[in-house]
Amino acid sequence: MKTGVEIYNNLSRPPKEALRTIQGGKLSRMTDINPRNGVIKL
Fold this sequence. Notes:
alpha+beta; single chain; elongated; 2 helices; two-stranded antiparallel ribbon
């Protein structure tokens, strides 16, 4: 069984396919994380 720290380390960085670049507004060039990624991981 994994400890809390191991679970955190595995889920702390989303995979590249879950990241999307924001195109416009004040948040341009920042990334948006697909919320479905967290559901899939758990």
